[in-house]
Amino acid sequence: MIGSLDLILRLVIWFLLTANLSVANIIIGICVALLLPHGKTALGALKDWLRVLWEIIVAIPQAYLEAFELIFRPHMQENITMERAKPRRSPGLVFLDIFLITFTPKTIVVKYHEEGWYEVHRVQRSRKR
């Protein structure tokens, strides 16, 4: 049986995609969440889940600030960096990490490397020389 946090994550994604909270859609969402394949990885510690969820909540105002900054002071410099993923992450936590990085307008995860690295595309203000 999949962990309850993974089930909740799958249901939240289902409801965000369908934008429908009818009884039929809830039943379909539960069936889809249970039928999706899952690995034999250990469930991430509750502390890790809570930390990532808190970081997402904190990222919401940051995303608005970055959006206004991009509107009023355009960023012209781009670069791709490699960021180390935290060790021993379940697939659900990896998804939330990628979501957190991609949520803000200045960054997007281009690729996740199985060795534990995120390839992140960033836009920045060009430095005056």
Automatic annotation (TrEMBL):
Please list every transmembrane segment annotated in the UniProt record, as residue ranges: 12-36, 52-72
Q: Name one GO molecular function term.
A: monoatomic cation transmembrane transporter activity
A GO cellular component term found in this entry reads: membrane
Keyword list, A-Z:
Membrane, Transmembrane, Transmembrane helix
Q: Pfam families, per this entry?
A: MNHE (PF01899)
Q: Does the keyword Membrane apply?
A: yes
Record-given protein name: Cation:proton antiporter
Instruction: Name the lineage.
Output: Bacteria, Bacillati, Cyanobacteriota, Cyanophyceae, Leptolyngbyales
